[in-house]
Amino acid sequence: MISITKTNARKKDRSGERGLFLLEFAVAVGFMGVLGSLVISMLAQGWELNARNAAIMDVAVGTSTSTTWLVQDIHLATDTNLPDGGGAQATAQFTWTDSGGAHVCDFAMVSGELSRTCDASTVSIARSIENLTFERTGELITISYDVVSADRADISDSIALNVALGAG
Amino acid sequence: MSLPTLSIRKMKSPRSDRSERGFVMIEMMLAVAIVGTAMLAVVTAFSSASKTAQFVDEASTAQWLSTSQMELVRAAAFVATPGIYATVTPPAGYVITNATSDVVGGDPNIQIVAVTITQDGDTVFEASTMKVNR
Questions:
Q1: CA distance A127 to A59
Q2: Which residues of B111-127 are buried (b: 16+ CB within 10 A; e: fewer)?
Q3: C-alpha–C-alpha distance, residues A164 and B30, integer Å
Q4: CA B89 to chain centre
Protein backbone atom coordinates (compact mmCIF):
# COMPACT_ATOMS: atom_id res chain seq x y z
CA MET A 1 0.00 0.00 0.00
CA ILE A 2 1.23 3.42 -0.93
CA SER A 3 0.40 6.63 0.85
CA ILE A 4 1.30 10.09 -0.35
CA THR A 5 2.52 12.48 2.27
CA LYS A 6 2.39 16.19 1.78
CA THR A 7 5.71 17.88 1.71
CA ASN A 8 5.93 20.76 4.12
CA ALA A 9 6.70 23.72 1.90
CA ARG A 10 7.71 25.99 4.70
CA LYS A 11 10.35 23.93 6.38
CA LYS A 12 13.84 23.56 5.05
CA ASP A 13 14.69 20.01 4.17
CA ARG A 14 17.95 18.33 5.05
CA SER A 15 19.74 19.90 2.07
CA GLY A 16 18.65 23.39 3.07
CA GLU A 17 16.21 23.97 0.16
CA ARG A 18 12.97 25.71 0.92
CA GLY A 19 9.98 23.79 -0.32
CA LEU A 20 8.88 25.99 -3.19
CA PHE A 21 8.01 23.07 -5.38
CA LEU A 22 4.24 23.48 -5.11
CA LEU A 23 4.39 27.15 -6.02
CA GLU A 24 6.70 26.48 -8.97
CA PHE A 25 4.53 23.60 -10.06
CA ALA A 26 1.43 25.79 -9.91
CA VAL A 27 3.15 28.53 -11.93
CA ALA A 28 4.32 25.99 -14.50
CA VAL A 29 0.84 24.47 -14.79
CA GLY A 30 -0.67 27.93 -15.16
CA PHE A 31 1.89 28.92 -17.76
CA MET A 32 1.35 25.72 -19.73
CA GLY A 33 -2.39 26.17 -19.45
CA VAL A 34 -2.22 29.67 -20.93
CA LEU A 35 0.12 28.55 -23.71
CA GLY A 36 -1.98 25.46 -24.37
CA SER A 37 -5.21 27.42 -24.62
CA LEU A 38 -3.53 29.88 -27.00
CA VAL A 39 -2.26 27.06 -29.19
CA ILE A 40 -5.62 25.25 -29.18
CA SER A 41 -7.45 28.47 -29.97
CA MET A 42 -5.04 29.18 -32.81
CA LEU A 43 -5.39 25.67 -34.21
CA ALA A 44 -9.17 25.92 -34.07
CA GLN A 45 -9.07 29.24 -35.93
CA GLY A 46 -6.62 27.76 -38.40
CA TRP A 47 -8.91 24.82 -39.02
CA GLU A 48 -11.82 27.15 -39.67
CA LEU A 49 -9.71 29.40 -41.91
CA ASN A 50 -8.41 26.42 -43.84
CA ALA A 51 -11.94 25.12 -44.46
CA ARG A 52 -13.02 28.59 -45.59
CA ASN A 53 -10.06 28.96 -47.94
CA ALA A 54 -10.72 25.53 -49.43
CA ALA A 55 -14.37 26.50 -50.02
CA ILE A 56 -13.34 29.78 -51.68
CA MET A 57 -10.95 27.93 -53.97
CA ASP A 58 -13.61 25.33 -54.74
CA VAL A 59 -16.11 28.01 -55.76
CA ALA A 60 -13.50 29.89 -57.80
CA VAL A 61 -12.63 26.72 -59.73
CA GLY A 62 -16.32 25.98 -60.32
CA THR A 63 -16.87 29.53 -61.57
CA SER A 64 -13.87 29.48 -63.86
CA THR A 65 -14.58 26.05 -65.32
CA SER A 66 -18.27 26.63 -65.94
CA THR A 67 -17.81 30.04 -67.57
CA THR A 68 -15.04 28.71 -69.82
CA TRP A 69 -17.23 25.88 -71.12
CA LEU A 70 -20.29 28.07 -71.58
CA VAL A 71 -18.43 30.83 -73.43
CA GLN A 72 -16.70 28.33 -75.69
CA ASP A 73 -19.86 26.46 -76.68
CA ILE A 74 -22.10 29.50 -77.11
CA HIS A 75 -19.47 31.30 -79.18
CA LEU A 76 -19.31 28.30 -81.49
CA ALA A 77 -23.07 27.90 -81.67
CA THR A 78 -25.03 28.97 -84.69
CA ASP A 79 -28.40 28.08 -83.24
CA THR A 80 -30.16 27.56 -79.93
CA ASN A 81 -33.52 26.33 -78.72
CA LEU A 82 -33.89 29.41 -76.51
CA PRO A 83 -36.63 31.66 -77.87
CA ASP A 84 -35.66 35.31 -78.28
CA GLY A 85 -37.29 37.23 -75.43
CA GLY A 86 -38.87 34.04 -74.16
CA GLY A 87 -37.81 34.46 -70.54
CA ALA A 88 -35.65 32.27 -68.33
CA GLN A 89 -35.34 28.54 -68.92
CA ALA A 90 -33.68 25.85 -66.84
CA THR A 91 -32.05 24.09 -69.78
CA ALA A 92 -30.62 25.12 -73.11
CA GLN A 93 -29.45 23.54 -76.32
CA PHE A 94 -26.82 24.97 -78.63
CA THR A 95 -25.98 23.71 -82.09
CA TRP A 96 -22.78 24.27 -83.98
CA THR A 97 -21.30 22.88 -87.12
CA ASP A 98 -17.76 22.08 -88.16
CA SER A 99 -16.11 19.85 -90.73
CA GLY A 100 -17.38 16.85 -88.77
CA GLY A 101 -20.97 17.94 -89.22
CA ALA A 102 -23.55 19.34 -86.82
CA HIS A 103 -23.06 19.03 -83.08
CA VAL A 104 -25.76 19.47 -80.48
CA CYS A 105 -24.86 20.44 -76.92
CA ASP A 106 -27.36 20.36 -74.07
CA PHE A 107 -26.81 22.12 -70.77
CA ALA A 108 -28.88 21.10 -67.76
CA MET A 109 -28.69 20.42 -64.07
CA VAL A 110 -28.08 16.78 -63.15
CA SER A 111 -27.85 15.90 -59.45
CA GLY A 112 -26.74 19.38 -58.45
CA GLU A 113 -24.11 19.57 -61.15
CA LEU A 114 -24.06 21.57 -64.38
CA SER A 115 -23.98 18.91 -67.02
CA ARG A 116 -22.98 19.32 -70.68
CA THR A 117 -24.00 16.64 -73.17
CA CYS A 118 -22.56 16.97 -76.65
CA ASP A 119 -23.07 14.27 -79.24
CA ALA A 120 -24.17 11.82 -76.52
CA SER A 121 -21.04 12.46 -74.48
CA THR A 122 -21.80 13.88 -71.04
CA VAL A 123 -19.42 15.75 -68.76
CA SER A 124 -20.04 17.55 -65.50
CA ILE A 125 -18.56 21.02 -65.86
CA ALA A 126 -19.26 22.37 -62.37
CA ARG A 127 -20.42 20.99 -59.04
CA SER A 128 -22.79 22.55 -56.53
CA ILE A 129 -24.69 24.73 -58.97
CA GLU A 130 -28.01 26.27 -57.99
CA ASN A 131 -30.68 28.39 -59.67
CA LEU A 132 -29.44 27.84 -63.22
CA THR A 133 -31.33 29.74 -65.92
CA PHE A 134 -30.71 30.61 -69.56
CA GLU A 135 -32.27 33.60 -71.24
CA ARG A 136 -31.97 34.96 -74.75
CA THR A 137 -32.24 38.59 -75.78
CA GLY A 138 -31.43 38.95 -79.45
CA GLU A 139 -28.03 37.38 -79.95
CA LEU A 140 -27.09 37.73 -76.29
CA ILE A 141 -27.46 34.70 -74.04
CA THR A 142 -27.52 35.39 -70.29
CA ILE A 143 -26.75 32.47 -68.03
CA SER A 144 -27.50 33.03 -64.35
CA TYR A 145 -26.51 30.63 -61.61
CA ASP A 146 -24.98 30.32 -58.17
CA VAL A 147 -21.84 28.34 -57.47
CA VAL A 148 -22.15 27.26 -53.84
CA SER A 149 -19.45 25.48 -51.89
CA ALA A 150 -20.41 21.89 -51.12
CA ASP A 151 -18.98 22.22 -47.62
CA ARG A 152 -19.75 25.83 -46.74
CA ALA A 153 -23.11 27.19 -47.84
CA ASP A 154 -22.01 30.72 -46.91
CA ILE A 155 -19.31 30.70 -49.60
CA SER A 156 -20.79 31.22 -53.05
CA ASP A 157 -20.63 33.24 -56.27
CA SER A 158 -23.74 34.53 -58.00
CA ILE A 159 -23.00 34.68 -61.70
CA ALA A 160 -24.88 36.43 -64.50
CA LEU A 161 -22.80 35.65 -67.55
CA ASN A 162 -23.51 37.25 -70.92
CA VAL A 163 -22.31 35.45 -74.00
CA ALA A 164 -22.91 36.53 -77.59
CA LEU A 165 -24.33 33.69 -79.65
CA GLY A 166 -22.08 32.58 -82.47
CA ALA A 167 -19.48 35.26 -81.78
CA GLY A 168 -16.60 32.84 -81.97
CA MET B 1 5.61 -2.96 9.54
CA SER B 2 6.19 0.53 8.15
CA LEU B 3 4.36 1.66 5.02
CA PRO B 4 6.35 2.92 2.03
CA THR B 5 5.86 6.63 1.47
CA LEU B 6 6.03 8.72 -1.70
CA SER B 7 6.97 12.31 -1.20
CA ILE B 8 6.98 14.94 -3.96
CA ARG B 9 10.00 17.14 -3.68
CA LYS B 10 12.33 19.09 -5.81
CA MET B 11 14.90 16.96 -7.56
CA LYS B 12 18.35 17.43 -6.22
CA SER B 13 20.63 18.75 -8.90
CA PRO B 14 24.40 18.63 -8.83
CA ARG B 15 24.32 22.37 -9.50
CA SER B 16 24.04 24.92 -6.80
CA ASP B 17 20.68 26.47 -5.94
CA ARG B 18 21.76 29.74 -7.53
CA SER B 19 22.67 28.24 -10.92
CA GLU B 20 19.52 26.10 -10.86
CA ARG B 21 17.26 29.14 -10.43
CA GLY B 22 18.99 30.84 -13.39
CA PHE B 23 18.59 27.80 -15.53
CA VAL B 24 14.85 27.67 -14.83
CA MET B 25 14.52 31.26 -16.02
CA ILE B 26 16.47 30.54 -19.19
CA GLU B 27 14.39 27.46 -19.84
CA MET B 28 11.22 29.46 -19.48
CA MET B 29 12.49 32.17 -21.82
CA LEU B 30 13.50 29.56 -24.35
CA ALA B 31 10.12 27.89 -24.12
CA VAL B 32 8.36 31.22 -24.63
CA ALA B 33 10.61 32.02 -27.60
CA ILE B 34 10.08 28.61 -29.21
CA VAL B 35 6.31 28.64 -28.75
CA GLY B 36 6.17 32.27 -29.89
CA THR B 37 8.15 31.50 -33.04
CA ALA B 38 5.98 28.49 -33.81
CA MET B 39 2.82 30.53 -33.33
CA LEU B 40 4.18 33.32 -35.53
CA ALA B 41 4.95 30.79 -38.27
CA VAL B 42 1.43 29.35 -38.05
CA VAL B 43 -0.17 32.82 -38.15
CA THR B 44 1.98 33.79 -41.15
CA ALA B 45 1.04 30.59 -42.98
CA PHE B 46 -2.69 31.13 -42.34
CA SER B 47 -2.45 34.75 -43.40
CA SER B 48 -0.64 33.82 -46.60
CA ALA B 49 -3.18 31.10 -47.44
CA SER B 50 -6.03 33.54 -46.86
CA LYS B 51 -4.49 36.15 -49.15
CA THR B 52 -4.02 33.55 -51.87
CA ALA B 53 -7.62 32.38 -51.59
CA GLN B 54 -8.83 35.98 -51.65
CA PHE B 55 -6.73 36.71 -54.72
CA VAL B 56 -8.05 33.64 -56.56
CA ASP B 57 -11.61 34.58 -55.64
CA GLU B 58 -11.15 38.15 -56.92
CA ALA B 59 -9.45 36.99 -60.10
CA SER B 60 -12.18 34.46 -60.81
CA THR B 61 -14.97 36.99 -60.24
CA ALA B 62 -13.18 39.70 -62.23
CA GLN B 63 -12.64 37.32 -65.12
CA TRP B 64 -16.28 36.35 -65.57
CA LEU B 65 -17.35 39.96 -65.06
CA SER B 66 -14.93 41.07 -67.75
CA THR B 67 -16.13 38.33 -70.12
CA SER B 68 -19.73 39.23 -69.44
CA GLN B 69 -19.07 42.94 -70.05
CA MET B 70 -17.12 42.30 -73.25
CA GLU B 71 -19.92 40.11 -74.58
CA LEU B 72 -22.44 42.81 -73.74
CA VAL B 73 -20.37 45.36 -75.67
CA ARG B 74 -20.01 42.93 -78.54
CA ALA B 75 -23.77 42.44 -78.79
CA ALA B 76 -24.61 46.14 -78.36
CA ALA B 77 -25.13 48.65 -81.14
CA PHE B 78 -22.04 50.69 -81.98
CA VAL B 79 -21.64 53.83 -79.84
CA ALA B 80 -19.42 56.50 -81.36
CA THR B 81 -16.31 57.49 -79.41
CA PRO B 82 -16.16 58.84 -76.70
CA GLY B 83 -19.45 57.27 -75.74
CA ILE B 84 -19.68 54.40 -73.33
CA TYR B 85 -21.59 51.16 -73.31
CA ALA B 86 -24.08 49.87 -70.78
CA THR B 87 -22.48 47.80 -68.03
CA VAL B 88 -23.50 44.55 -66.41
CA THR B 89 -24.64 44.61 -62.80
CA PRO B 90 -21.64 43.59 -60.72
CA PRO B 91 -21.65 41.81 -57.34
CA ALA B 92 -21.42 43.91 -54.21
CA GLY B 93 -18.05 45.64 -53.84
CA TYR B 94 -17.23 45.53 -57.56
CA VAL B 95 -17.52 48.39 -60.06
CA ILE B 96 -17.28 48.04 -63.84
CA THR B 97 -16.43 50.93 -66.11
CA ASN B 98 -15.75 51.11 -69.82
CA ALA B 99 -14.27 53.74 -72.08
CA THR B 100 -14.00 54.05 -75.83
CA SER B 101 -11.18 55.50 -77.89
CA ASP B 102 -10.38 55.71 -81.58
CA VAL B 103 -7.63 53.63 -83.04
CA VAL B 104 -4.54 55.64 -83.98
CA GLY B 105 -4.92 57.25 -87.38
CA GLY B 106 -8.25 55.87 -87.24
CA ASP B 107 -11.32 54.89 -88.90
CA PRO B 108 -14.21 56.24 -86.79
CA ASN B 109 -15.99 52.97 -87.35
CA ILE B 110 -13.36 51.05 -85.43
CA GLN B 111 -12.78 51.75 -81.76
CA ILE B 112 -11.04 50.34 -78.73
CA VAL B 113 -13.25 49.54 -75.75
CA ALA B 114 -11.39 49.29 -72.47
CA VAL B 115 -13.06 47.63 -69.50
CA THR B 116 -11.85 48.16 -65.96
CA ILE B 117 -13.03 46.25 -62.91
CA THR B 118 -12.38 47.60 -59.45
CA GLN B 119 -13.08 46.13 -56.09
CA ASP B 120 -13.30 48.42 -53.10
CA GLY B 121 -11.50 51.08 -55.13
CA ASP B 122 -8.63 48.87 -56.28
CA THR B 123 -8.26 47.90 -59.91
CA VAL B 124 -8.35 44.11 -60.11
CA PHE B 125 -8.78 43.54 -63.84
CA GLU B 126 -8.35 45.47 -67.07
CA ALA B 127 -9.09 44.28 -70.58
CA SER B 128 -9.76 45.83 -73.95
CA THR B 129 -11.31 44.79 -77.22
CA MET B 130 -11.93 46.24 -80.67
CA LYS B 131 -15.44 47.08 -81.79
CA VAL B 132 -16.41 47.65 -85.39
CA ASN B 133 -19.43 49.58 -86.61
CA ARG B 134 -21.10 47.29 -89.09
A1: 9
A2: bbbebbbbbeeeebbeb
A3: 65
A4: 23
Residue A139 lies in a domain: yes
What's the structural domain count of chain A?
1
Chains A & B: contacts with CB separation below 8 Å: 111
Strands A140-148 and A129-137: antiparallel
Q: How far is B80 from chain A (nearest CA, A)?
A: 21
Which residues pair with residue B94 across a beta bridge?
B119
Q: Quick check: A129 and B34 in contact, CB under 8 A?
A: no
pLDDT digits (tens, 9 = 90+) for A42-87: 889 888 999 999 999 999 999 999 999 999 999 999 999 999 999 9
The residues of chain B scoring below 70 in pLDDT are: 1-23
Contact B16/A at CB under 8 A: no
**Residues of the domain holding A130:** 40-164
Burial A21-60 (b: 16+ CB within 10 A, else e): eeeeeeeeeeeeeeeeeeeeeeeeeeeebeebbbbbbbbb
Nearest CA to B89 among B68, B113, B114?
B68
| Yes or no, beta carbons of B60 and A157 under 8 Å apart | yes
pTM of the model: 0.75
> What residue ranges do the domains of chain B occupy?
17-132
